[in-house]
Amino acid sequence: MAYPTGFKYTKDHEWIELTADQGKVGITDYAQQQLGDVVYVELPEVGAKVKQGQSFGTIESVKAVSELYSPVTGEIVEVNSALKDKPETVNANPHDSWMVVIKMTVPSEEAALLDAAQYEALVK
To answer: How many Cα atoms occupy the beta-carbon half-sphere of 87 within 13 Å?
Structure first.
């Protein structure tokens, strides 16, 4: 699996696609494979505040329930509500299935995130 090079990654297997001061967040292909078939996603409300490394929701599969961790500190400015009705979208395309958009309040946190090569090395 090639991980998109335009994304940054966390050791908790989330990705973030940063544009200016905000980023779309989802789970990596590796995380999706570990989970198996995703059947439910619980996401925060728009306006919720999150801290880097803090849980912002849960993802449920036929095997387990896992926390979703925020790659950056900020405010939720958009939620992918389509996932409430079709959580299985994550199974087919985890890198296209964003969950939330976070407006970053601590841009320096980006330095703690992994690039695609570092993430690939982590999951080998």
So the answer is: 16
| 36 within domain boundaries | yes
Q: Is 47 exposed, middle or buried (0-12, 13-18, 19+ CB in 10 A)?
A: exposed
Domain that holds residue 101: 23-118
Written as one string, the DSSP assignment of 41-63 is: EE-PPTT-EE-TT-EEEEEEESS
Residue from 85, 33, 23 nearest 56 by CA: 23
Q: How many domains does the chain have?
A: 1
- 69-106 pLDDT, tens per residue? 999 999 999 999 999 999 999 999 999 999 999 999 99
Is there a domain that residue 124 lies in? no
> Which residues fall within 8 angstroms of residue 20, CB to CB, at 6 or more apart?
none
Give the DSSP letter of residue 80.
Answer: -
